[in-house]
Amino acid sequence: MINAFKRAARALRQEPLGLLACAATGVLTFMSFPTAWSPELNLWWMMWFSHLPILLWLTSAPERAERGARWAFGWSFLCGFIINTGGYYWIADLAQTFGHLPTPVSYVILGLHSALLGLIWGLWGVAVRLLTPRLGLTWVAPLAMVAFEHFLPRIFPAYMGDCQASFSTIMQVSDAVAHGLVERVASPLARALLYALCDP
User: Fold this and answer.
1) What is the pLDDT of residue 199?
2) Considering its fold, how many domains does the chain have in total?
3) How many angstroms separate the CA atoms of 128 and 199, rounded?
4) Domain of 117?
5) Which residue pairs from 159-162 have beta carbons closer than 8 angstroms and sit at least 24 positions apart in sequence?
6) Which residue from 20, 43, 71, 149 puts its CA 20 to 30 A from 122's CA?
7) Residue 20's pLDDT is what?
8) Tell me, what DSSP letter sits at residue 47?
9) Which pTM value belongs to this model?
10) If 0-12 CB within 10 Å is exposed, 13-18 middle and 19+ buried, where does residue 156 land?
11) Phi-psi region of 102 (alpha: psi -120 to 50; beta: other; left: phi over 0)
12) What DSSP string runs through 163-188?
């Protein structure tokens, strides 16, 4: 366990752009969901390009081409951890208020929950890294996210598409057809930006 933390710390020091990509995607993603400031401040539009930094990192430069599943899982897991810590910050308050738990214990619970949901992102990152060369980002990124969101256990069910709650028509169609519809529509914009930035 200690060795794993040492490896993670070394990776963060050696590849600061990875940390920046995870932090950018994390903050853009959790800020696109409704918060205590809604509806006065609603940043739903950030979801439409929030995945771009991590997609760039996972699919970038030849010098990282030899890095496979473990590398992709680590960075994507970190990204998911940031997203879910920011998005579910209220779990710590919930544990203190209703569970009467000490503050440190409440934050450990928040961390464990964020780690559980970080698995969704970790597995998604592996799929993006390993399957994109064969199947293309067009199919892999959205379908992998939809699959892992639906098949991995969750304490509080929520999906990427929920950030578009301001648009009742989109949400009603998505609920009627599939929860993945919003992700399937949102992902092409991120891909288009990705390809535009990567094209020499």
Assistant:
1) 44
2) 1
3) 19
4) 2-198
5) 159/183, 160/29, 160/47, 160/186, 161/186, 162/33
6) 43
7) 93
8) G
9) 0.81
10) exposed
11) beta
12) GGTT-HHHHHHHHHH-TTHHHHHHHH
